[in-house]
Amino acid sequence: MESRDAVIRIQQQGDQYEGHIVWQLHDTYGPEDGPDLDGKTVTDRKNPDPSLRSQPLTGLRLLWGLRYDAASGAWLDGHVYDTDNGKVYQCEVRLLDANHLKLRGYIGISLLGGNTVWSRVPAGTTPVGPARPATVAPGR
After folding, report:
1. What is the pTM of this model?
2. Would you list the DSSP string of 80-110?
3. pLDDT band at residue 123, thresholds of 50, 70 and 90?
4. Whole-angstrom distance, CA of residue 75 vs CA of residue 139
5. Of 51, 130, 118, 53, nearest to 80 (Cα)?
């Protein structure tokens, strides 16, 4: 299922691409998260490094190390961080069309992984509510 609760800005850094969380539908915890968290900024609570668990998710680097491979038409050799479990997976990205990309996260070999489709957010728009697209596709 495609999530529409965050915007990831993917930009070129040297000869690689990386992505940071720039917007979240829920950037503060709600009452369902308990009275100790209610109203506080959402943080990287699942990070395996205890010293990083208090860093806000907004601004967090989620993708890194992707390099464009013209022969395959894909961005390869990257890593993606899963904020839900604090794990880092290898990843590759392919454009499906001008507004959608497929990110494949995996452990070891690409056959052992899963796909997710991300949608481009039009430049200059601010997402509002769950009906907005989830992510920004990388440019070439």
Report:
1. 0.82
2. EEETTTTEEEEEEEEEEETTEEEEEEESSST
3. confident
4. 10
5. 118
Closest CA relative to residue 16, chosen from 93, 107, 128, 81: 93
Q: How many residues does the chain have?
A: 140
CA nearest to 43, candidates 24, 65, 58: 58
Q: What angle do CA 57, 50, 114 make, to 5 degrees?
A: 55
| Type of residue at 130 | P
Task: Report how many helices (DSSP H) and strands (DSSP E) the chain contains, helices first.
Answer: 0, 7
Distance CA 102, CA 96 (A): 7
Rg over CA atoms, the chain: 15
Contact 64, 18 (CB under 8 A): yes
Q: Are 24 and 3 in contact (CB under 8 A)?
A: no
pLDDT, tens digit, for every residue of 30-49?
999 999 999 999 999 999 99
- Confidence check: pLDDT of 14 > 50: yes
| Other C-beta atoms lying within 10 Å of the C-beta of residue 93 | 22
